[in-house]
Write the structure tokens for this entry.
Amino acid sequence: MDVVENKHQAAKAAILDWVAADRPRHGLIFMLMTHNRAAFKLALRYCRDHEEMLRATAYANSLTNKDFRAFWKGINKQNNANSTKHATVVDGCSGDDNMCAMWREHF
């Protein structure tokens, strides 16, 4: 994640320099801007493609550093994202219409 942050800052600074130079279409400032922007997009794509591996590495680093609070905070955050607020299956029935019919017959 630090790699993406550094590349984002470099790309942002290069774009601001490019805008300050009246947005040239060639030359050193243009080449720096396009290179830094491409490097940021590549790092972002790498993180997106390897998200699970990077998350597991972060958890392992938390355990190695004996930062148990950060470890469990990350685990809880990941597990709560998969939970739902409402039941999707009641007594073997799924779907709104089927559950309503089952409750209608029950009462």
About this structure: The beta strands are 89-90, 93-94. The CA atoms of residues 23 and 103 lie 66 Å apart.
